[in-house]
Amino acid sequence: MPNPNVTKNGDEVVINSSIDELFENMPLGSVSKAIGNNLYGINFRQTGNAVPMAKDMYGFTFFTRPQLNLTQTNITNYRNFYNLLTQNKASYQFYTRLMLDPRLGSKAGITSPLVDPFNPFIPILTNNIVSLSGWPDITLPTYTSEAGLYGEEHSIVDGAVNHFESYDLDVTFRNTKGNPLLYLFYIWETYATLVYEGILNPYLDMIVENEIDYNTRIYRIVLDQQKRYVTNIGCTGASFPISNPVGATFDYNIDKPYNTANKEINIRFKCNGFLAFSDIIKLNFNKVLGIFNGSMRSLLASDIEGGDARDDDTIVYRHNGYVKIPYSLSAAMDSSVFANNYFGVNYRVYPYINLLTNELEWWVNEKVFNKKAQEDFKNDIENGGQSSNNAEDEDV
């Protein structure tokens, strides 16, 4: 990797070190030593320090796909689900059916150009989320003894800090043309009630194992300022949607030409359990990806056995037909959309957390990652993300 302190003509860059030395002789203190000093000892002079404030990126919110039984023999028991049987593979109905029932793609071989069968998450929710609130705080249960003669009391921790209770999360999504989210949640929530009534039946293995098939798990991944490393991760134990603001769709107001009441929709999720700050969440996140994608399952097994840390930004790492998009390339994509050979891999990637470095990696099928783009990668970095040619990506 090129030395950031050396210019192209080979001269050493001394400005950064000079500024740091200058601050070291001032009340502010050395920038490079500020964090270490803040951890090590007491600032008895009570002067300001150069420790940067916490500014993490919100990162990503992922919703795992449920396992609804939307086979033809099952949904024909309820007439309002007949539109799911459409043969138009580019329709929202077809999309919703395959998204909420992954087995139709993996077992029955039913495909749609709008659904990636190797993706365990619901992309339309991740891409359109606006806000999410309601996560429980961690509070220690305590016991306080009865007051003594002089009012003295004694308090101790009295219970576990694990959060296994139920709670509600309010999630706001940006609604898009055609109201696909309203329809997706309508099918999702209606299916749960029909299973309760006995009109529809879950898959047989769900019945045998006594599993709830309409559950999802919500993962929250917080990233550092460079959107590279996972600084915090949390998830629900199990969740399912319990509201759908479909009523506003049918409001009428002659003073407005368009109904924009549902430009943003709020969906409430009933959740059970809350996990945070545990490395096993990262492992489970990767395992979910591995269930749907055999190559990522193989990558996880390799990493657990002591695989490559993949910490060189200039190398396109490969594994079993997939390549890891280098972080330098991701940064170039953010700053340069035009004439960038790599922009075509957007919306075609899979998130994977490196268990050794905590980097949120993005892997893509090697067929999507244009071979010509791989050859131009070095030149692209040197040009700040501007490709030296205008070759288009291969079709997916």
Explain the overall architecture.
With 396 residues, this protein is α+β, with helices and mostly antiparallel strands. Helices cover 28% and strands 19% of the residues. It is built from 13 helices and twelve strands. The protein has helices at residues 15-24, 31-40, 72-75, 92-100, 103-106, 123-128, 180-197, 204-208, 279-292, 294-304, 327-335, 371-375, 377-382, and strands at residues 57-63, 129-133, 142-144, 155-157, 163-174, 218-223, 230-241, 264-276, 318-319, 322-324, 349-353, 360-365. The strands form three sheets. Strands 1-6-7-8-5-2 form a six-stranded antiparallel sheet. Strands 9-10-12-11 form a four-stranded antiparallel sheet. A two-stranded antiparallel ribbon has the order 3-4. Strand 11 and strand 12 form a beta hairpin. It is globular and about 75 Å long. It starts with 14 loop residues before the first helix and ends in a 14-residue tail after the last helix. The model is unreliable at 1-16 and 384-396 (pLDDT under 50).
The number of helical elements comes to 13
Question: Which word captures the global form?
Answer: globular
Helix- and strand-based class? alpha+beta
Q: In what order do the strands lie side by side in the largest sheet?
A: 1-6-7-8-5-2
- Head-to-tail CA distance between termini: 31 Å
Q: H/E element string?
A: HHEHHHHEEEEHHEEEHHEEHEEHH
Helix proportion of residues, in percent? 25-40%
- Rg over CA atoms, rounded to whole Å, is 26 Å
Number of strands: 12
What fraction of residues sit in β-strands? 15-25%
Weakly predicted, low-confidence segments: 1-16, 384-396
Mean pLDDT: 84
Biggest sheet character: 6 strands, antiparallel
